[in-house]
Amino acid sequence: MERKTVLTEQAPAPIGPYVQAVMTGESLYISGQLGIDMQTGEMPAGVAEQAECSLKNLCAILAAEGMSTANLVKTTIFLTDMGNFAAVNEVYAKYFDGAFPARSCVAVAALPKGGLVEIEAVAVRG
After folding, report:
1. Burial of 99 by CB count in 10 Å (0-12 exposed, 13-18 middle, 19+ buried)?
2. What is the Cα–Cα distance from 104 to 95, expressed in whole angstroms?
């Protein structure tokens, strides 16, 4: 199995012992992306703003491999408060043209750096 580490300066650097993404065969496995604003290096205060940044970061990693959200086959959203489900859905829906990937959304006790939302994904080329 050929394995390629994917790293782009257009998305936040990993904050632990992991990589932004791994490409193997035609599949791209993207690590969870916090809602860090790449312009400021900080996380905005609101969940919608963090979701927007998280998805922008995810898109930057996809673009590094010549892909887009059209290549996504599975996403997982982690929320610290399920009360934010609707707000995140509103932002999330803007990134797709109706061809949504399979998705899970789970509540977690906490996220790194005090984040409110984190999104991981799997994409397939072709």
Report:
1. exposed
2. 16
Identify the residue whose tokens are 């959304």.
Answer: 105
Residues 116, 33 contacting (CB under 8 angstroms): no
Grouping H, G, I as helix, E, B as strand and the rest as coil, residue 76 is strand
Residue whose C-alpha is closest to residue 12's, from 77, 72, 48, 59: 59
Q: For residue 40, what are its two tokens?
A: 């400021």
Contact between 2 and 25 (Cβ < 8 Å): yes
Domains of the chain, first to last: 3-124 (3.30.1330.40)
Confidence of residue 126 (pLDDT cuts 50, 70, 90): confident
Report whether pLDDT(117) > 90: yes
Of 87, 59, 86, give the one whose Cα is nearest residue 75.
59
Residues 23, 69: Cα–Cα separation, whole Å: 16
Residue pair 78/116 in contact (Cβ under 8 Å)? The answer is no
